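re: ur question from the group chat, yeah i did fold both. here u go
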Amino acid sequence: MNKKIGNIFKGDKVIWMVFFFLCMISIVEVFSASSNLTYKSHNYIGPIIYHAGTIAFGVLVAVITLNIPCRFFKLMTPFLLLITAITLLWVLIGGQTINGANRVISLFGFTFQPSEIAKGAIVLATAQILSAMQRENGADKKAFKWILWITIPTCFLIGLENLSTAALLFAVVILMMFIGLVPLRQLGKLVGILAFFVVLAISMVMLVGHDTSGQEVAKTEQTDQPKKKSKLEKMLHRADTWKGRILKFGKDDVTPQEYDLDKDAQVAHANIAIVSSNIIGKGPGKSVERDFLSQAFSDFIYAIVIEELGILGAAFVVLLYIILLYRAARIASRCENNFPAFLVMGLALLLVVQAAFNMMVAVGLAPVTGQPLPLISKGGTSTIINCAYVGTILSISRSAKMKKEPEAVKNIG
């Protein structure tokens, strides 16, 4: 029996344990944080059954993926890039709107986010370029250009509707190039140019966007003739949201008496959840702020984790992601070939960097981005694809050709 189970759950056992704990925390915390969904649907058990089913399907996807030899992932790259291009254009033209942005596509009764597929495709392509153009003293200078030719158009298409996802993906690509020994001079120039464009983008957002803090007053002053938007305003139709987030994050600390719970409800209730948690938390299922946080089961689930599991539970979640990154780095260091090494690091960074940003938002160290917590937040496409990323890491751990370790090192590990 144990042998049969071992044949199913192959690959790095530590990553399997991290994956298991993240899935269990997800089921418990999403069940607790879904009070708004249960209230709206009048179905107490329905949302968690759906989420548990999604997790179970994700585990199945991970098991299927880990049985794919890592050499076949190279063959997927051109097809995934083609699908990425088609679906990103499709979602801009005819996608469904969620939270004021075209982010999902409906196909045969199912909805999925093209940006999730795009992230994996770009990491695959970057790993392939870096591995193919490695030289004795690092990556060839041309690798930098090839990576940017693929990454920039993709991030631009994603960024029109989901700027935070585009920024996170670009950050992961830069980290992969650093790991892949792309010349520091090229990376330095890129970072300088990016800093310039970030300043320019923020300036455009602040210029084009409208401060919606006085929205109620503005509504009473509207005329019958709607104001025509310029082409720039149409392209940057998310500018109001971005400007609002920048202004809220840049605000000086205000006293509790001056805080507006209506305008800053998410951040306010996340702060209340964290402050009221103490060290040990209120206990699973005993959150109070879940009833006031509209995205308690998604963007702000880490605040609910802190409220219910306390500082120790929150630290344990952070530790799980750190272990995931550490094990991925160890697998990468043992790979004999470059492609699986770069791929495993790229996928691990994709999960961990997004997790870091989500947790920073929840505790007030970053502006609200709308990024879910990988493998914990409630999700459809994102959960399943994140499970596929874990499956790919596990596939590399079991099927990639590894360097032989000395006996002393083997005994330590």
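okk and heres the other one u asked abt
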Amino acid sequence: MTVYVIGGINQDIVATSDTHLRPGETLTGNDLNYYPGGKGANQAIAAARAGAQVAMVGCTGDDTAGSGLRDYLAESGVDVSRVVAKKGVPTGTALIVVANGENSIIVVLGANETVGTDSIDGVSFTAEDVVVAQFETPIETTLAAFKAARQSGARTLLNPSPVVPVPTELLSQTDVLIVNEHEFELIFETPLGPVLNEDAAGSAGFTGTLVITLGSDGVLALSGNDRIREAGRAVEVLDSTGAGDCFMGYLAAALHNHQDLASAIALANLAASVSVTVPGAASSIPDRESLA
């Protein structure tokens, strides 16, 4: 019974400022910090801190940053035996500016782009597994992993971020699709407002479970004829970096633990709301025991 996370492993370089940059502008920052990150790594750590057995599938560079990130994943309870250090490419890096609790991010994928279909060779998925992916690693690898997982009866969760159009074949292999407001509108080419107001269906062309994260407004999930709405939680936002990944990892762990969708979403929403009160991405993810 394992949560397999196929995804990016990055070194996050975080600068804080009073305002966000505009084109051609130079600002004086307030602080600079280095954190472990990458959507895949963040989600793997979140699932582990939520109590699941987790295995990471990915690549780093054969450099100091990569070594530190692999150690951090292992120390966080994640199996890193399928994380490969690649020579000649840098570890993925995210340049993040945080201002007024909101972030702007530029990601240099580096070694994450080398996560090929050979990365899942030898992985024997079972019906008790959950397989998680994002878009910081090649879509071809995700598709191959999802096909293998579905053939074994495992459940597949996709967070299509950084967002690009999702191939129809990949959607057909996805059990649970987790998107934010912007991702929903790009993927389904329809405004979100009517869906929130129950004036339109939200998952045209997608037959699985659709989970839409709405920031401070909470979460909406559509699964068959069921419509689940989880309210947002009022917290003082310090840094929203990694909140979506925290949600994703906790959701994967809860579903892996056979929780029903409503309680899984409630737990994931709680964890994400706690994470935004702490700086950093992976470093902000709470342990399950610390949640009320």
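fwiw on the second one: The chain has a mean pLDDT of 92. The CA atoms of residues 135 and 161 lie 5 Å apart. idk if thats what u expected
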